[in-house]
């Protein structure tokens, strides 16, 4: 007796095979038959021939670390067909955790992960995973160990500097224990404080631990704008020297003047791979991104505490120096300079709610002030979260990246603001609506491959990512034209039915 049979389904199986018709039967959490199934006695028969049946989508770049504690059913991921996601990206994560520096970690992560107001009663990956197991999870989840958490643990309340040899040794010991306990790799965000203060010596020491444990290194590299070429070269060099598997996060070139550099970046990655570097990259299907508004400040200001940052942008002499550095940056990405105030929109401002939804240019026009002064005024007043959205690249370059054979799908989901960037709740279906069905950039099988089998292979998830007999029954039935999900199974159990997300906790920590 089968638990589920998808009868005469149009199957896109996670490979590059053309979609084909078959019955797909599920029993005891596994795909047990692909072909012609006897449906007599089957508990559930689902027959919707106009829809596509694919493996559950795997989101290789998420920021759901706090969200999954607050909303374990993960309706926003299930609703777009994502059955597995990878967290702890960009060097931002929740473990390891030292009680005396907990508030420092909370302040650091809240603009990306959101505010978790429950008990912080874990110390490490094992404790964090135990907490999730206790409450249950709606999707399958894995976690990278974050560089920020390691630095805060080892350097205490003085993280905006280079680490001593003793502190590097402590970080390496901590990382080794997290990886041995089940964390799938290590991530850093060299654009963000405090990771941006790490020297090559520190990074290579940590990557030696990653290599020894045969785990993944994911990186938001240092500069995605004017200095994107040396920035990508830096992380390729780190991978070459250490021998780790490298995942470059949300690959793009930011700013109008840098759009011509994408071809060179892709060539660099291709050549590195030909020469033995195990490198791939991910991206979400939008030309615009989202991050903390405070991250627009220069690196020397990011060294300061949030209170000190607010004071610095308030003082006339310091403000003028900050403005000069933001308008004429050297060796760092000034998002303000790269994209312009007309392309920076306020998503969430705890202290200036009336400005949410407006661009810096619009606010400046209303006030009759310079847009950069407006930005610094907002930051000087902000005592809570500040999240923005910015147009970063051309669609032509986005499509070039999406098409590339080394690209894997990620949402870069953020739950720190509401409304969130649309990638958080709709990235997977947006990809099918916009770039498969309307613009024909990818075929159905190519898109499904990038969203399932490709990422499963990259993450070494040997039992997921494909519709094959014996594989875990993570399955999605969806309409690629309308971009709507109808049915989702997670580990062979129903998580979405007839377009309605069920409040079920069928996921696993993997």
Q: Which helices and strands occur, and which strands form pairs?
A:
Blueprint: E1 4-11, E2 20-27, E3 30-35, E4 44-46, E5 52-55, E6 57-59, H1 67-70, H2 75-78, E7 82-87, H3 102-113, H4 125-135, E8 140-146, H5 147-155, H6 165-180, E9 185-189, H7 200-212, E10 216-220, H8 228-242, E11 245-248, H9 262-274, E12 279-283, E13 288-292, H10 299-302, H11 306-312, H12 316-327, H13 335-339, E14 344-349, H14 360-367, H15 371-381, E15 386-391, H16 395-403, E16 407-409, H17 423-438, H18 444-451, H19 453-459, E17 475-479, E18 484-490, E19 493-497, E20 500-501
Parallel strand pairs: 1-4, 1-5, 6-7, 7-8, 8-9, 9-10, 10-11, 11-12, 12-16
Antiparallel strand pairs: 1-2, 2-3, 5-17, 13-15, 14-15, 17-18, 18-19, 19-20
Helix pairs in contact: 5-6, 6-7, 7-8, 8-9, 11-15, 14-15
């Amino acid at each position: 007796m089968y638990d589920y049979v998808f009868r005469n389904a149009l199957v896109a199986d996670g490979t590059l095979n053309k979609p084909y018709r078959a019955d797909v039967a599920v029993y005891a959490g596994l795909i047990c038959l692909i072909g012609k199934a006897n449906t007599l006695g089957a508990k559930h028969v689902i027959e919707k021939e106009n829809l596509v049946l694919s493996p559950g989508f795997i989101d290789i770049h998420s920021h759901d670390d706090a969200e999954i504690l607050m909303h374990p059913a993960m309706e926003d991921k299930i609703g777009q067909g994502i059955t597995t996601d990878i967290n702890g990206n960009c060097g931002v994560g929740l473990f390891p955790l030292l009680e005396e520096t907990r508030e420092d970690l909370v302040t650091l992560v809240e603009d990306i992960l959101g505010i978790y107001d429950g008990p912080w009663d874990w110390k490490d990956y094992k404790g964090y995973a135990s907490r999730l197991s206790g409450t249950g999870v709606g999707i399958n989840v894995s976690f990278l160990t974050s560089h920020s958490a390691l630095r805060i643990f080892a350097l205490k309340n003085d993280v905006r500097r280079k680490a001593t040899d003793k502190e590097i040794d402590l970080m390496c010991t901590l990382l080794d224990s997290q990886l041995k306990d089940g964390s799938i790799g290590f991530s850093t965000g060299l654009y963000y404080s405090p990771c941006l203060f790490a020297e090559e010596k520190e990074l290579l020491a940590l990557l030696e631990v990653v290599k020894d444990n045969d785990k993944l290194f994911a990186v938001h590299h240092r500069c995605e704008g004017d200095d994107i070429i040396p920035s990508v070269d830096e992380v390729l060099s780190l991978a070459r020297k250490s021998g780790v598997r490298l995942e470059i996060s949300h690959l793009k070139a930011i700013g109008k003047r840098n759009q011509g550099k994408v071809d060179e970046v892709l060539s660099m990655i291709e050549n590195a791979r030909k020469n033995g570097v195990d490198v791939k990259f991910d991206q979400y299907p939008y030309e615009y991104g989202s991050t903390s508004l405070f991250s627009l400040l220069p690196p020397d200001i990011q060294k300061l505490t949030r209170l000190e940052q607010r004071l610095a942008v308030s003082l006339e002499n310091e403000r003028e120096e900050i403005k000069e550095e933001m308008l004429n940056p050297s060796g760092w990405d000034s998002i303000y300079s790269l994209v312009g105030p007309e392309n920076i929109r306020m998503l969430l401002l705890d202290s200036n709610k009336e400005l949410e939804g407006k661009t810096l240019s619009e606010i400046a026009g209303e006030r009759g002030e310079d847009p950069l002064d407006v930005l610094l005024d907002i930051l000087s007043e902000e005592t809570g979260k500040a999240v923005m959205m910015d147009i970063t690249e051309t669609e032509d370059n986005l499509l070039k990246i999406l098409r590339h054979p080394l690209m894997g799908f990620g949402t870069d989901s953020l739950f720190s603001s509401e409304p969130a960037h649309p990638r958080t709740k709709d990235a997977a279906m947006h990809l099918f609506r916009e770039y498969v069905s309307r613009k024909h950039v990818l075929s159905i099988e190519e898109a499904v491959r990038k969203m399932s089998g490709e990422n499963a292979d990259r993450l070494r998830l040997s039992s997921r990512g494909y519709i094959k007999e014996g594989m875990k029954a993570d399955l999605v039935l969806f309409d690629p034209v309308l971009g709507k999900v109808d049915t989702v199974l997670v580990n062979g159990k129903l998580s979405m039915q007839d377009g309605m997300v069920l409040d079920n906790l069928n996921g696993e920590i993997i």
